[in-house]
Structures are given as C-alpha cells and as structure tokens.
Design a protein that fits this description.
Blueprint lengths: L2 E4 L2 E4 L4 E7 L8 E7 L6 E7 L4 E3 L7 E6 L4 E6 L8 E9 L2 E4 L3 E6 L1
Parallel strand pairs: 2-11
Antiparallel strand pairs: 1-3, 3-8, 4-5, 4-9, 5-6, 7-8, 9-10, 9-11
C-alpha cells in the first residue's frame, strides 16, 4: 500500500490542524489505518488508528483533542487535531495494515509553538 500524507505545518498552541493520508488501495482491503508520531529523541508512538469496521483507538495524550476519520470514497484517512500543545510537536507518519503487512507514508512535520 502506498500512502501519501499531507497537512502538517507550524501553528500556535491552542490552534488546529488536519492531516490527510491517501491510500493507493481501497479501504475495504486494508485492515487498519492510522497515525504515529516521533518527536526528536523519542520513540515512534501511536497517535490514533481506525479499523476497516470503523473502530477507533487513541493515545491517552490526545483523547478528547484529536479525531481520526475516513472517507471511503477517497481512500483517505484524516486526523483532526484541535487544542494543539507544544508537546504534540513531532513528525507524523501515516500507516496502513494490509495482508498483515504494515506500510508507512512519508512523515509530515507538525510544530506547535507556545
């Protein structure tokens, strides 16, 4: 699965951003899609994911602020990020699981200034 992510940028604390990730395959053949992030000097961590059945999962640090959703017609997953904090600063990676294999998109930088 090829993934194309977009939507990162520089914002101030409290503002919002929306990330998009377009998949090269139909969602119906993908078990799950999601977003991970990696801050400098830290390990990559799960932010949110969504299964083919629509079940979602969020990291505790983003619950209530971030929302993952998908558009089946466009094979695109979105991550709406509200009330951003400086601690959300990281490179965000889109990921997909297809036939038990995980694919990664290119990272997109999100920087939140205080």
């Amino acid at each position: 699965v090829q993934l194309q992510a977009s939507g990162g940028g520089l914002v101030q604390a409290g503002e919002s951003l929306r990330l998009s990730c377009a998949a090269s395959r139909s969602f119906f053949s993908i078990a799950a899609m999601g977003w991970y992030r990696q801050a400098p000097g830290k390990q990559r961590e799960l932010v949110a994911d969504i299964t083919s059945r629509g079940s979602t999962n969020y990291a505790d640090s983003v619950k209530g602020r971030f929302t993952i959703s998908r558009d089946n017609a466009k094979n695109t997953v979105y991550l709406q990020m509200n009330s951003l904090k400086p601690s959300d600063t990281a490179v965000y990676y889109c990921t997909a699981v297809h036939l038990s294999l995980r694919s990664w998109g290119q990272g997109t930088q999100v920087t939140v200034s205080s």
